[in-house]
Amino acid sequence: MSLSTMLTSMGAGMLRSCLIFFLTLLFSLPLGMGVMFLRRSRIAVVQWITKIYIAIMRGTPLMLQLLMWYFGPYYIFGWSIRGYRFTAIILGFSMNYAAYFAEIYRGGIEAIPKGQYEAAEVLGYSKVQTFFKIILPQVIKTILPSITNEIITLVKDTSLAFTLAYNEMFSLAKQIAASQTSFMPFIIAGIFYFIANYVVAFVMERIEKAMNYYN
């Protein structure tokens, strides 16, 4: 199989990996913010449940979580899982990364001095206005390096979708390598992940510079 044929065959896998990546970010970033608010809730039960959720998501392998999301509905409720594979993948990735993003958000918010809140109150800002106009812009600037690290990890973690026999980039690379007894598909996959991470790092660096308002 020629290089161009390999690239064509793996093209669909590249698109599927990108789709997992973008949908996970789309859902996990705002979901992580919601989880963060629950984690900081003054209601002890809500805070306790959220802590358990975060502990489970961060304390167990993502691969195991994907298997639970996919096979759980069948084994627990007897539901049909036909056509559910991609949904299970997005649920698994989004719920997992939301826990990590929630803790990153929490660390950023707790790093903001209390004087910021007091100053906003003196100026007549409501709690919502204080958060979105004063606190959140500072938090985003503070947590961008940590967010970048998680996003880079996500690019590589998309390969774990092979656990559910989903034909993303890594799965197709393995299949072609096995059928052609060639190492080239793995090299192509490695280049794809490297370029994708380089683009992510470049974009996030530009965002960091744009938010460096001190300069």
Tell me what the structure shows.
The protein is an all-alpha fold and 215 residues long. It is built from eight helices and no strands. Helix 1 runs antiparallel to helix 7. The longest helix has 37 residues. The radius of gyration is 21 Å and the shape is flat. The termini are far apart.
Kindly summarize this structure in a few lines.
By secondary structure, the protein is mainly α. The chain has helices spanning 3-39, 44-59, 62-77, 85-110, 114-122, 127-157, 169-180, 184-210.
CATH superfamily: MetI-like
Rg value: 21 Å
Number of domains: 1
CATH topology: MetI-like fold
Based on the coordinates given, report the CATH architecture: Orthogonal Bundle
Please state roughly what percent of the residues sit in beta strands, choosing from under 5%, 5-15%, 15-25%, 25-35%, 35-45% or over 45%: under 5%
Low-confidence stretches: none
N-to-C SSE series?
A: HHHHHHHH
Terminal CA distance: 53 Å
Number of strands: 0
Name the CATH class: Mainly Alpha
Structural class: mainly alpha
Tally of separate helices:
8
How helical, in percent, are the residues?
Answer: over 70%
Query: Biggest sheet, open or closed, and with what strands and sense?
Result: none
What general form does the structure show? flat
Q: What's the overall average pLDDT, rounded?
A: 89
